[in-house]
Amino acid sequence: MINNLVRLGKMSWEEFTKLSTKNRAPYLSDDSDRFVHLIYAQQFNRDNLEYIGQLATKIRMMAKSKEGSDFLSTLLSDKRAMLYFTQPSTRTFLSFMAACQILGMKVAEVRDATTSSEYKGESAEDSVRVFSSYSDLIVMRTKLKGLAERMAWLLSNSKRLVPIINAGSGKDQHPTQALLDIYTLQRSFEDINGIDGKHIVFVGDLLRGRTVRSLAFLLGNYNDVKMTFVAPDAFQIGSDILEYLDKKGIQYDLSQNFKSVIPTADAIYMTRVQDEWDNEEGESAKVDISNFWFGDEELKLLQKHAVIMHPLPRREEISTSVDQDKRAVYWRQMRNGMWVRAALIANIFAVDTEILNFSE
Fold it and tell me: Which pLDDT score, from 0 to 100, does residue 278 have?
């Protein structure tokens, strides 16, 4: 079999971008389907979602003991990671740092472009090429749509192929957030037939919420899943996601009546208003979102087995009074990010088999 990355290294950027996202995805893995770059949610299929979940659980259990934790910390102790986060982040940044540390990687960071040579006029492309000289892995979070994808292509066409992980690019994709969301759903429903057949309700700013977009793609890998998108017209989910669901034959509804869909939901996925993407100051504040908040009254309508999720940070959309309910899993969801990102990195560097074979 021809190695996909060799083929990518012989493909021009123009040729690559003419491909659909689905057809680009195979070029970002090696010929054994192991991830090299992780850029899109569409790179995941059901098999590798289940596998990454299994691996994340193994890492989580191993990390509870000193023996297991010490073993994990030796696996990538010869590797270095660069966290290149030029867009504000707390949870994603810290969970990637923790994931790298769990596996023993040394970590460097750039969190503000004004502290790098970009302030002197260096292009983001040149900055990433510099980072690749010092690092074995680059994790990127940027407001620039498509930058992580272009860097993956660029480094695949260089003499030093360093893996790129997209930790959020523009308003488009956040594949590792979607991965931890899937893992949270796997854990939440492991005793009730898994994710198949579940009703997932997305609420809030769905148009600009890249976590929702990426998770919708991943849920397309499961059987008989229904999705309901609850939002005011100004924040409703984009047509590209609906076209994807139509092509997959996935059932979905659009709604503005939040309370009417809560009783049949297996998971409620809340989101905040993404006003950092406003085209003009105060634009989002003109939209009334008070009917799309989750509080004590909404909690009474929720099924006993259902879960409430949120990618965080939150504002008023979930009342703090909900936090103590066992169905509120957003704190576990956040912690899961550390485990699935460690599992993803272990897969990229081919130490996953050693983890699965570990026996205390």
Answer: 58
